[in-house]
Amino acid sequence: MNKIEIVERMLAALDAGEQAELVVVTGSHGSAPRSAGAWMAVFADGSFCGTVGGGRVEDLALAEASELLAAGKSRTVRYTLGGKKSDTGMICGGAVDLCYALVDDSVRAALEQERDVLKDRGEGVLAIDLALLGDDVAGAAAHGAESARTAAGPLAWAVEHPLNQMDLRAGVSGGRYLEPICPEGFTYIFGCGHVGRACAGALAAAGFAVIACDDRPEMLEADLLPAAADRRLVDYDDLAATCAIGPRDLVVSATSGHGSDYAVVSQALAAHPSYLGCLGSRKKTAFVRGKLAEEGFAPEDIEHIHMPIGVPIHAETPEEIAVSIVAELISHRRTVLLPRPH
Question: HSE of 47 in the Cβ direction (CA atoms, 13 Å)?
Fold first, then answer.
């Protein structure tokens, strides 16, 4: 589930006069199912959305979040995932730090700001002040009950706008939990044929905000692209008229021809997006790279193009090709935009 959906569920609970408990992974150590930035929201009726990794950790988190929600409290705690004194019975060998943050009307404004940043794929950092929980907010060497730090009521939240959120990594620093809200901007798909449509759905399911683009109106019908954040009729020879590609954006070119793919790639490359990939055979790849070189693009910039696009898994069907492309974009997110800690 995407974070914007979790935020909207929490805002809906507040609108209904109810509170919620947000469980956030604030740090991980060794082998852990999720790193800092994973969310799960728990509601008064026992329902929940999101995940902090599944398994025994999530079972414990659900039970504890329900208890804290009923008591109107917030808490941090560390669970171990291995060893003779494992809190979870799991044998992964690591540990995970969780923050249980009570959600009431005092954090509504921050939630609304975060929703807007997520919707617009803007830059911003969620900051949760852990000062109420005491000095040792990460649990230090203790774990389980010994690591728990509890406070009555909600914690203070804010959405901040750093000069360069790309330098930040989610985690606890200076008594606050800091998390970049959007590691990437929009994901533009140029060409909404079989592969483009399959990519749009799979990328949206993985949390990317997809803008589907084509020069054929019939390819942009809403029922063909239900998961797209936006659908745009474009002129492949003038992308800037409809698409403001920036350095935080990702671009996938899957148009119906060599010429239109070259037009997309050459204009996108000049905009220096975070990721640029193009569907194509070895012959097409050589054609596009050679023409870019003739047009004066720097060799190092040309080398950054993912072409042929996707992880090489011998994909053949549109759906299989989409899986290979989405895998490559997820790898880019997790290794370049928001890398997991080692």
Answer: 8
pLDDT digits (tens, 9 = 90+) for 202-222: 999 999 999 999 999 999 999
Output the pLDDT for position 83.
60
The answer to whether 254 and 195 have CB atoms below 8 angstroms apart is yes
What number is the average pLDDT over the span 136-147?
64
Do residues 98 and 52 lie in contact, with contact meaning Cβ atoms separated by under 8 Å?
yes
Q: Find tokens 């990702």 and name the residue.
A: 250
- Which residues, 6+ apart, have CB-to-CB distance to 168 below 8 Å? 125, 162, 178, 180
Which of 236-271 are b and which e, b meaning 16 or more Cβ less than 10 Å from the residue's Cβ? Answer: beebeeebebeebbbbbbbbbeeebbbbbbebbbeb
What pLDDT was estimated at residue 166?
45
Residue 79: per-residue pLDDT: 86
287-312 confidence digits (pLDDT tens): 899 999 999 999 999 999 999 999 99
- Residue 76 above 90 pLDDT? yes
Domains of the chain: 3-180 (no CATH), 186-337 (3.40.50.720)
Helix (H) or strand (E) holding 261: helix 258-271
CB distance 158 to 127 below 8 Å: yes
Three-state DSSP at 149 gives: strand
d(CA 320, CA 192): 16
Is the previous residue joined to 308 through a cis bond, with omega within 30 degrees of 0? Answer: yes
CB-side neighbour CA atoms (13 Å) of 58: 15
pLDDT digits (tens, 9 = 90+) for 239-257: 999 999 999 999 999 999 9
Q: How far apart are the first and last CA of the chain?
A: 25
